Amino acid sequence: MTDPDQRHRVLVLRALGLGDLLAGVPALRGVRRAFARDRVVLALPPSLREAALATGAVDSVLPAEAPGRAVPSLGRWTGPPPDIAIDLHGNGPESRDALAALAPRRLLAHAAAPEPGLGRPPVWRPDEHERERWCRFLGAYGIAADPGDVRLPRPVTPSPAPGAVVVHPGAESAARRWPAERYAVVVRRLRALGRRVVLTGGPGEDALVTDVAERAGLPARDLLRGGLPFDALSALVAHAPLVVSGDTGLAHLAVAHGTPSVTLFGPVSPRLWGPPRLARHIALWHPGPPGDPHGGVPDPQLLQIGADEVTAAALSLLRPARTTARPGKGGTPRGEAVRP
């Protein structure tokens, strides 16, 4: 067995949100396999520590966060420089420079200098799916990673609402938040068919969750406000028959647990951030020009998705398995059920 003090230290930077972390799991697992005997440290916001450790791909977390999607300081790194630093944060010089400031022996980044025998670093492709982008990036450095390696272990924590359909109306930006009144319509229709529905919301989203609940006539016991701890949230999703949400972290958590999902896309195509090509995941999207995913008002393409579309997609996944088919054939007449 390798002496823990003699292991190389591999620092990976991906200091973004929950969805970004989960989309990066295939790449992180590639790093884990490539450096199986070494210590892999992931730099990301401390609120995501439990989620990061649940992937089984990292040994520890380096707290690192900045407002928005800015590159954080890595000043909390202690001890000798990393043996290897890997930039899974972005393609610009800012994230590269944050890692380079630690003087690693080797730096892997889109903006890194050419390596002997490798040539120039891989080219950033703006039209590439996020999971595939980082696996291809690592492949250019001889690190194999599978974009389909997304699943998380089943949680041991009990679900706070086993068997309930999970509806998550929140999102980091208004551009990706479908209107509360439309979510309420979907919730009412699912409850009318005898389904228990619970609403979830992250920190700062209590007012939104309450608004949807009041419009839908949902009892207080089915409002999970304030942001659940990750183990409880993970268990909730893992034991749910369906997750309905916008393009946000909960949609990626549904993919990680193999839970059927309906995800509403607007400013960003699901071909860039959507679920895998599996019948249990439906990505609703009305094609159009790219929007601003961090905009302050709901994206016009997102607003083209109607409550009838979402309800039909949800019901198609809640039927017995023998009737579950590829979506977009009759269930979403005005939109496009996209298989990214």
From TrEMBL:
It comes from the Bacteria. The keyword Transferase applies. One of its GO terms (molecular function) is ADP-heptose-lipopolysaccharide heptosyltransferase activity. InterPro entries: Glyco_trans_9 (IPR002201), LPS_LOS_Heptosyltrfase (IPR051199). GO terms for biological process: lipopolysaccharide core region biosynthetic process. Residues 320-340 are annotated as: Disordered. The keyword Glycosyltransferase applies. Pfam families: Glyco_transf_9. It comes from Streptomyces filipinensis. Keywords: Glycosyltransferase, Transferase. The lineage of its organism: Bacteria, Bacillati, Actinomycetota, Actinomycetes, Kitasatosporales. One of its GO terms (cellular component) is cytosol. Transmembrane segments: none annotated. This is Transferase.
